[in-house]
């Protein structure tokens, strides 16, 4: 069909070939067919005469034809297959059966400001290519890496659509500076400034992962620089690892069009077991009776009346009509959760000729969340063009644009719909008899319960009585010019820019149809964020091989980057109360506002040198000097050196005997220094605030005061890391392994050191702390079974990380952080941010109460928690608080198995985390009597009397209790270990015959199941659940948005 | 090769031409740097409101003066939402008050942050006589804050000039006597450098009258009755103050900064303003009728209500201070007593709380009169207060009579616990009050608050703990 076209191409190639090989005397036509192990033809395989530019590719049937020297060698290369070098030796027909491979040592790995072959890597870099990314159905490519890369812990802390996972490379290296890696997208360094929860929906440092706006379909590869020697080229931003993203480029040849469509359904399979109506009525009534009994002890005359919410058991609870009306009650999870749909459509076209290559793509995601009304819509457009302007000049222009619209509920934890729904009392109906949402509607018979202080935050009062959108526009642009000054020397200059612009729009209806805890007047909020960032990077690269064996390359560069953001937030009040107009012009008053503008800049010099001898001994050294506007005037510049060595033992002559079974054995060793400059933009400067206002003559006057302690000696945190690695592969890549040991020490750690408030400040930023991380990473891969039609590929990784704080501020005083009564402490000798509070040892019996030698919390009664006297001083006081666990896991692992049989492929992936704990902040309410809220069903088995002690650990309910109810105790700490059947994917690729018949290049159908099952003891939705993505409170689950089970079907079509 | 050299030279030149120092210097945009500030008189004046604004914290409806003055005493209690307990309830029950109490810790920080701001102004105004009056206001506030602190914590670190973080580690708790000496020194300075009430800088600003009235209280607290009398008589004889005719008007919004007011916290009602929340929080819990929601704070004990009745005669101040219940939307009467002193029915509501306009009087003329009787034993002063209330006059001075009169006059106004301690009645009254059941006490030291554990942990060799903890 394309024969004329092909002929023309072939002619051109022939001419090229004849010109380029004119020097060689004997040339001849060589023809052949390239097939895979199944005998299926491979399309687009590159056949190149070694040492020349003479080459061709195979056609639709796998055939090729090339003019080449009779004594030349043909290199046959195809992505995902082992390269074959075949000597022509005068043959005219050369057919090749290409073997696919697991780990291609000639695979090019992108490193900072360059790329090297995997065989020449001296550091620890993990690469995930498009082939793997394509095999998953996610909107953020980082999600697809979960469980796949050793040493990189990826946690989907909340399952809301459009929400990035949190990523931690080789443990956290910082207390106060960030712990998120640096992302470099096509050379644009972008920081992930995610810091807080989704409180108020538009909190501007929530979910800032730069990958949120990148279409995974556009990505060619993701490289993660794990060790400090690799990351040191990113200097003051490398301490948490660096993630390099390279987007796809077109290849010369026929234009290829890919179309992909997916449809998915999501549902929460693992719900919480909450009390139903009758269980809750019994619990609540008992709580009131118990507290009345306590009160009556000191005040026998006390008679409970209906207004005494703490003591009076509602009459309705003994009224048959009411009990019948209540029945089993409502499980509010059924109201807030739903089955949700996802559509994902992708189209891309790529191609080009020798001079110009292009890729254009667009993607559309429309994803509903499993929480009522939540939704994420995103459209991406990308255009990547590379043009060889002339022999020595190459220009690249990558442009990408995205627009998204997100309706987010349930990710803020406290006071958001996921946690509130389960706290709501089960006795209330979804709608009352007059049709409104809540019992606080005075016209409803349910209004009678108002006097008892009951709780209902109807999910619809948040999701349906509000209008909430975050609309975001993102632009990434990258223009580069490469000039080949002379052979071996290349100068590259690149100008990059990114723009992030979003608006958060929120409106809450008047009164919320009585569904909320109180009647709140109509209100509206608008927030706007704009961040612009540009970077200019100049590098000079030199590479040359001397005397065959000595390979030398060097890089020097200078870069500048500047970033500026502006934030504006306005909340209006005094709306007319009719919900007609949502925008702020309908408000008559501004109830709160804020406006902030900040900027930073960074100028850097970089240098790197590589040397290798016979590819056997490899050495790399690099240094980066960063000058940052964030550093104090006393330390404007930071230096970040690194060095690494590698030894390919398998290439040694004395290893000749192992060639039969040992493909590769390489030892790597490196040391590097990286920094963390995520220390805030103006930490070095003492700042004034004017918001200490006072009223004078009826007017509000502002009062100036200094609110931040000036720290002019502030600088970056420094992490020095040693890495020792071993790579080996055996039996023609049937089995391979990568093992790494690392140890890092962070010094000059930035701490908000508590200082005596006599200075006017409770803390000051100081580079004073020290911390170390060490760990082991194992990656084991192989093909246990390979037959003609069936193959089993297995890939296992496991990572261990240990973290220890070595030094803190003055007197090594521990640093405590608390979030709504839940405490985390950092102290010397332990890991960062462990949970800190009281230990409980069951429930006090009457005998315990009478035992005056047993230390007890003041005011304890029989049935109250038995607090352990940890320090043994005979009384329960704040010194009895102790370590209760931590989010730091003993190990994390992932295991992926892929089975292919003819056109079918089946992938099964398991992931797991072992030995961590979760701060179950939900348990503050759901695990212990608190304000007439609903509880876990298991709490029905509470202590009733010495004879009926229940499960022995659930205390008796009391409405008024001054024991440890609101203190962090191990009742709030849950085991976070889990094993997850993360992914099952079944695909069928139609063979060539079918495709030919349909006049298409390829067709694949697949079904993908994500998050199929989790084995865990955790009481809430998901053991990965964490309201916070980074920082001190990671692992605090205050009602995280559940991670649903998702089933997707898709079709992949290429022309 | 030659051209390459030029390029290198060019690139290097361009690089150097970009002055990195300029490029790397980024000054804050949305905040100002403190460097060079607090120099001119105008700049120092702008820092003054930040010293007053601490009153919103300490004397607010959830302030430590409320917790200590009322809840820590026998007079009122808090009705918590069921299950909502913790560090605030330790004040209510006198059980479980411990060294990690977050309320105590929070206010320790608030006080010292305010002290720092004030020391900073005083130091920067040094040597500038034109600023004596400004310094007088600041020293009045510093005296007030230290006076409140020393009464609640006992010995406290005494800082009178800005100190750095490292210097702060060396500062131990000063003896109560030394703290009082500093307070008296500050107040004497304020009394001689501030204008009197008639020439006040602005309504609510500290005056020499306020300094003298406070000085009287400080002297009474330290047992110096003659000095107290002299200071208080300056206010009494000034003729600038008189009791309002109607007790209820004291809290009427049209009587802000009245002739009875000596030092008053200034609020402005309405969303977005520094509004007060006495009305929102002191109304019955979750009532939703009297107020939008109702905090259930500062709820009177029956003993207080009953104290207004002597031999069957009800003091007029009772019903001007307390309402005995309310009627719900569905017409049911809920019998629960609450104070109506700071009533503000027309306040805007935000987040279910009234953004009220009510001020809060820290010192008023009735207090001066009762203190004068306390200092002199002469009932003529307290009789004036009784006359206004239409109550029978006390004929013979006694501590009991004074204490009774102070309770009726100042109920809910954060005086009670301080009065009990000053008059030596705290142990007996709290040991026998109904609210605390069978709890008994034997020493005033049991009523001191703990030094926050955090403060001791930071500086373990220097800072000691109070004996009760």
Rg of chain A from C-alpha positions? 32 Å
Number of helical segments of chain A?
12
Number of separate strands of chain B: 15
Spatial ordering of strands, largest sheet of chain B: 2-6
Fraction of residues in H or I helices of chain B: 40-55%
Low-confidence regions of chain B? none
Overview of the molecule:
The complex is a heterodimer of chains A (1055) and B (469). Chain A is mainly β and 1055 residues long. Among the domains of chain A are: 3-97, Sandwich (Immunoglobulin-like); 108-252, Beta Complex (Ferric Hydroxamate Uptake Protein, Chain A, domain 1); 277-328; 837-885 and 917-1054, no CATH class. Chain A is built from twelve helices and 51 strands. Chain A has a 22-stranded antiparallel barrel. The longest helix of chain A has 22 residues, at 277-298. In chain A, 50% of the residues are buried. Residues 6-25 of chain A have low confidence and may be disordered. In chain B, the strands form seven sheets. In chain B, strands 2-6 form a two-stranded antiparallel ribbon. In chain B, strands 3-4 form a two-stranded antiparallel sheet. A two-stranded antiparallel sheet of chain B has the order 5-15. With 469 residues, chain B is mostly helical. Chain B has helices at 2-17, 20-23, 41-47, 49-52, 54-58, 64-71, 89-93, 102-124, 132-153, 165-168, 176-193, 208-221, 225-238, 278-282, 302-307, 316-321, 365-376, 379-389, 399-410, 416-422, 426-432, 453-458; strands at residues 32-33, 76-77, 156-157, 173-174, 261-265, 299-300, 309-310, 313-314, 322-323, 326-327, 333-334, 338-339, 348-350, 353-355, 360-364. Among the domains of chain B are: 41-194 and 398-458, Serine Threonine Protein Phosphatase 5, Tetratricopeptide repeat; 278-355, no CATH class. Chain B starts with a helix and ends in an 11-residue tail after the last helix. Strand 30 of chain A pairs antiparallel with strand 1 of chain B, so a sheet runs across the interface.
């Amino acid at each position: 069909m394309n024969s004329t076209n092909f002929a023309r191409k072939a002619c051109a190639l022939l001419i090229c070939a004849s010109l380029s090989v004119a020097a060689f005397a004997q040339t001849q036509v060589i023809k052949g067919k390239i097939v895979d192990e199944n005998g299926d033809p491979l399309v687009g395989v590159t056949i190149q005469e070694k040492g020349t530019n003479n080459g061709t590719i195979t056609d639709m049937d796998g055939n090729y034809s090339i003019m080449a020297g009779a004594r030349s060698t043909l290199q046959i290369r195809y992505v995902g297959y082992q390269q074959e070098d075949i000597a022509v030796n005068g043959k005219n027909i050369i057919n090749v059966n290409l073997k696919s491979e697991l780990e291609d040592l000639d695979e090019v790995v992108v490193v900072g400001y360059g790329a090297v072959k995997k065989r020449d890597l001296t550091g620890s870099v993990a690469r995930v290519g498009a082939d793997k990314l394509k095999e998953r159905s996610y909107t953020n490519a980082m999600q697809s890496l979960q469980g796949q890369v050793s040493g990189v812990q990826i946690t989907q802390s909340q399952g809301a659509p459009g929400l990035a996972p949190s990523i931690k490379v080789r443990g956290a290296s910082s207390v106060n500076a960030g712990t998120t890696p640096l992302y470099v997208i096509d050379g644009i360094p972008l920081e992930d400034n995610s810091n807080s929860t989704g409180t108020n929906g538009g909190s501007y440092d929530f979910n800032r992962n730069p990958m949120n706006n990148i279409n995974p379909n556009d990505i060619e590869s993701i490289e993660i620089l794990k060790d400090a020697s690799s990351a040191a080229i990113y200097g003051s931003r490398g301490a948490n690892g660096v993630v390099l993203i390279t987007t796809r480029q077109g290849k010369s040849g026929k234009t290829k069009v890919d179309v992909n469509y997916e449809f998915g359904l999501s549902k929460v399979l693992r719900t919480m077991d909450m009390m139903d109506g009758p269980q809750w009525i019994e619990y609540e009534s008992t709580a009131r009776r118990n507290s009345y009994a306590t009160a009556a002890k000191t005040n026998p005359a006390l008679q409970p009346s209906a207004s005494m919410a703490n003591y009076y058991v509602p009459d309705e609870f003994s009224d048959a009509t009411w009990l019948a009306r209540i029945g089993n009650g409502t499980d509010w999870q059924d109201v807030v959760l739903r089955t949700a749909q996802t559509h994902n459509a992708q189209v891309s076209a790529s191609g080009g000729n020798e001079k110009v290559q292009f890729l254009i793509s667009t993607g559309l995601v429309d994803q509903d969340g499993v929480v009522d009304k939540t939704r994420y819509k995103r459209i991406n457009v990308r255009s990547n063009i590379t043009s060889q302007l002339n022999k020595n000049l190459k220009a690249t222009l990558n442009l990408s644009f995205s627009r998204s619209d997100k309706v987010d509920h349930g990710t803020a934890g406290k006071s958001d719909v996921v946690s509130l729904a389960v706290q709501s009392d089960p006795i209330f109906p979804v709608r009352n008899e007059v049709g409104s949402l809540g019992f606080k509607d005075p016209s409803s018979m349910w209004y009678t319960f108002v006097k008892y202080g009951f709780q209902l935050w109807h999910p619809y009062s948040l999701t349906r009585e509000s209008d909430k959108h975050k609309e975001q526009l993102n632009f990434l642009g990258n223009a580069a010019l490469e000039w080949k000054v002379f052979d071996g020397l290349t100068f590259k200059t690149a100008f990059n820019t990114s723009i992030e612009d979003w608006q958060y729009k929120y409106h809450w209806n008047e009164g919320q149809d009585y569904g909320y805890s109180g009647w709140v007047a109509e209100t509206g909020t608008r927030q706007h964020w704009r961040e612009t960032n540009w970077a200019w990077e100049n590098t000079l690269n030199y590479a040359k091989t001397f005397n065959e064996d000595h390979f030398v390359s060097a890089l020097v560069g200078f870069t500048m980057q500047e970033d500026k953001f502006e934030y504006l937030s306005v909340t209006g009040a005094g709306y007319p109360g009719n919900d007609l107009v949502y925008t702020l012009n309908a408000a008559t008053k501004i109830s709160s506002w804020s406006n902030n503008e900040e900027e930073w800049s960074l100028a850097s010099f970089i240098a790197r040198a590589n040397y290798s001898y016979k590819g056997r001994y490899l050495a790399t050294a690099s240094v980066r000097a960063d000058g940052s506007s964030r550093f104090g005037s006393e330390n404007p510049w930071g230096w970040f050196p690194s060095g690494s060595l590698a030894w390919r033992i398998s290439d040694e002559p004395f290893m000749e005997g192992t060639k039969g079974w040992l493909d590769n054995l390489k030892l790597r060793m490196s040391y590097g220094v990286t920094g963390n400059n995520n220390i805030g933009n103006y930490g070095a400067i003492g700042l004034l605030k004017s918001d200490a206002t006072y009223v004078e003559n009826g007017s509000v006057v502002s009062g100036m005061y200094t609110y931040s302690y000036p720290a002019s000696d502030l600088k970056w945190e420094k992490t020095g890391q040693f890495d020792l690695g071993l790579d080996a592969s055996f039996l023609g890549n049937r089995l391979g392994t990568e093992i790494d040991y690392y140890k890092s020490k962070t010094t000059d750690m930035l701490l908000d050191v508590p200082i005596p408030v006599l200075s006017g400040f409770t803390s000051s930023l100081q580079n004073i702390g020290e911390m170390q991380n060490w760990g082991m990473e194992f990656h084991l891969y192989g093909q246990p079974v390979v037959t003609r039609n069936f193959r089993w590929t297995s890939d296992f990784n496991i990572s261990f990380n240990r973290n220890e704080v070595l030094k803190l501020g003055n007197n090594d005083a521990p640093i405590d952080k608390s979030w709504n009564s839940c405490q985390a402490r950092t102290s010397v000798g332990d890991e960062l941010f462990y949970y800190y509070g009281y230990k409980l040892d069951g429930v006090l019996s009457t005998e315990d109460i009478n035992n005056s030698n047993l230390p007890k919390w003041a005011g304890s009664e029989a049935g109250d928690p038995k607090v352990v006297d940890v320090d043994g001083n005979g009384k329960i006081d704040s010194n009895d608080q102790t370590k209760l666990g931590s989010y730091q896991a003993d190990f994390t692992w992932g295991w992926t198995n892929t089975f292919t049989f003819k056109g079918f492929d089946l992938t099964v992936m398991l992931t797991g985390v072992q030995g961590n704990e979760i701060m179950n902040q939900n348990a503050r309410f759901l695990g212990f009597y608190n304000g007439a809220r609903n509880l876990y069903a298991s709490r029905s088995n509470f202590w009733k009397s010495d004879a009926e002690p229940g499960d022995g650990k659930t205390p008796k309910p009391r409405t008024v209790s001054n024991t440890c109810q609101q203190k962090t105790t191990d009742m709030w700490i849950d085991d976070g270990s889990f094993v997850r059947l993360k992914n099952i994917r079944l695909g069928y690729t139609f063979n060539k015959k079918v495709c030919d018949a349909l006049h298409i290049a390829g067709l694949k159908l697949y079904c993908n199941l994500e998050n199929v099952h989790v084995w865990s003891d955790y009481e809430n939705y998901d053991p990965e659940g964490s309201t916070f993505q980074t920082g001190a409170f990671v692992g605090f689950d205050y009602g995280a948005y559940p991670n649903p089970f998702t089933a997707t079907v898709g079709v992949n079509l290429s022309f | 090769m030659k051209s390459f050299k030029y390029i290198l030279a060019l690139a290097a030149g361009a690089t150097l031409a970009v002055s990195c120092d300029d490029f790397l210097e980024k000054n804050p945009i949305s905040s100002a740097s403190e460097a060079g500030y607090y120099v001119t008189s105008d700049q120092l004046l702008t820092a003054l409101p930040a010293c007053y604004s601490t009153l919103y914290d300490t004397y607010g409806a959830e302030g430590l003066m409320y917790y200590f003055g009322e809840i820590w005493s026998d007079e009122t209690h808090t009705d918590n939402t069921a299950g909502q307990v913790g560090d605030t309830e330790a004040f209510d029950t006198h059980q479980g008050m411990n060294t990690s109490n977050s309320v105590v810790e929070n206010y320790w920080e608030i006080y010292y942050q305010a002290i720092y701001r004030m020391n900073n102004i005083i130091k920067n105004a040094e040597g500038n006589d034109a600023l004596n009056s400004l310094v007088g206001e600041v020293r009045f506030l510093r005296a007030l804050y230290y006076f409140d602190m020393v009464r609640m914590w006992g010995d406290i670190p005494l800082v009178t000039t800005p100190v750095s973080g490292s210097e702060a580690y060396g500062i131990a708790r000063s003896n109560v006597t030394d703290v009082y000496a500093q307070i008296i020194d500050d107040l004497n300075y304020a009394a001689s450098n501030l204008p009197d009430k008639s020439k006040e800088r602005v309504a609510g600003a500290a005056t020499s009258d306020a300094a003298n009235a406070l000085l009287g209280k400080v002297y009474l607290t330290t047992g110096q009755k003659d000095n107290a009398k002299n200071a208080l008589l300056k206010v009494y004889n000034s003729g600038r103050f008189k009791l309002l005719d109607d007790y209820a008007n004291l809290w009427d919004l049209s009587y802000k900064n009245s002739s009875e007011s000596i030092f008053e916290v200034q609020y402005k009602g309405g969303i977005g303003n520094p509004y007060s929340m006495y009305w929102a929080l002191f109304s019955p819990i979750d009532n939703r009728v009297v107020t939008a929601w109702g905090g259930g704070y500062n709820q009177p004990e029956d003993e207080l209500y009953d104290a207004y009745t002597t031999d069957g005669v009800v003091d007029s101040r009772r019903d001007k201070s307390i309402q005995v219940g309310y009627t719900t939307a569905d017409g049911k009467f809920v019998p629960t007593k609450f104070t109506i002193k700071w009533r503000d029915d027309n306040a805007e509501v935000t987040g279910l709380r009234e953004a009220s306009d009510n001020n809060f009087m820290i010192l008023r003329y009735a207090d001066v009169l009762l203190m004068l009787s306390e200092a002199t034993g002469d009932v003529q002063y307290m009789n004036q207060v009784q006359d206004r209330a239409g109550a029978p006059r006390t004929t013979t001075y006694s501590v009991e009579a004074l204490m009774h009169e102070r309770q009726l006059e100042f109920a809910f106004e954060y005086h009670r616990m301080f009065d009990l301690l000053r008059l030596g009645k705290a142990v007996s009254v709290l040991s026998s009050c109904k609210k605390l059941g069978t709890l008994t006490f034997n020493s005033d030291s049991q009523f001191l608050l703990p030094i926050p554990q955090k403060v001791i942990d930071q500086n373990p060799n220097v800072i000691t703990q109070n004996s009760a903890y």
